């Protein structure tokens, strides 16, 4: 389903991409896609048209079918979450690869249908869990992998902010907490094993707008997530505590700070018996800060070109939807729920 594309200065064929949804997130995708090396943004789709002028001269179509008819290699799906399934299935049925915004879908069943559709056709498909491309979290994950923190005890995240009036199709668990679920599993390399959650609905909408989650990962790491749309402040905080200290990542500023445990020597007899932790040095790392959305797009483009690309697979996106469903189930039943064991990950097609 690809029209002939010119070859760029690098000698590689220029990929033809489409963008579906020109809202708050689609505008950012449009900006990045217009300037992405090796990619031509062929057209966009939004039934409401281009209200913000984000397409900047690129054709704005009304239906996904019109976009597919132009011949594209892949599409970025940035329409509301409730429409990811129908749009994704149409792309897969027509042999078009897709980068689908997070969360993968509004329900576990819908996410499973998307996994099946893209895998059955051997198409490259990914989920836009953008936090994985945040420099602070990338550095944190690399440091955990090399054992800088020693044994990992706990992951705490807070994602609080004001109400986004445009999001009406899902609640804060699927819309925002999926960031925390994905990043926690990814930085630790662990699965969620069980969790308990409580939600609050204050905005008058059918969905929750505040959640508190306490959980356990498969290696016993304790996790907690506070996520809401009811705070007059914006914070994106992730702290990982282990036997050597604590890493704190701020994904708004892309800063990563390490608080080391202090080595305490004291002649004070009463304190000698205390085997807890003392404050040591604090280091804020100087890390290169590339725009996460640009890195996400570069990785996905590379994967579509058949290069080894570190993308978030649909199965990983499905897993995050499963955990978010367990959060809602726990809140509804007011019990601790076990998270079913993970479906094994499939290698992405070349
Ligand atoms: N990765 C992130 O950090 C991040 C941030 C914000 C939103 N998102 C995700 O992006 C998606 C869109 O969110 P948003 O905040 O941009 O929403 P939005 O409401 O601002 O924009 C959605 C746009 O999609 C259009 N649309 C509706 N139905 C469509 C269809 N069938 N085909 C094409 N376009 C359609 C709407 O007219 C609107 O312009 C959601 O899945 C959301 O979870 C991700």
TrEMBL record:
Transmembrane segments: none annotated. GO terms for molecular function: nucleotide binding. InterPro entries: Gfo/Idh/MocA-like_OxRdtase_N, Gfo/Idh/MocA_Oxidoreductases, GFO_IDH_MocA-like_dom, NAD(P)-bd_dom_sf. Residues 16-129 form the Gfo/Idh/MocA-like oxidoreductase N-terminal domain. Pfam families: GFO_IDH_MocA (PF01408), GFO_IDH_MocA_C3 (PF22725). Residues 138-247 form the GFO/IDH/MocA-like oxidoreductase domain. This is Gfo/Idh/MocA family oxidoreductase. It comes from Peterkaempfera bronchialis.
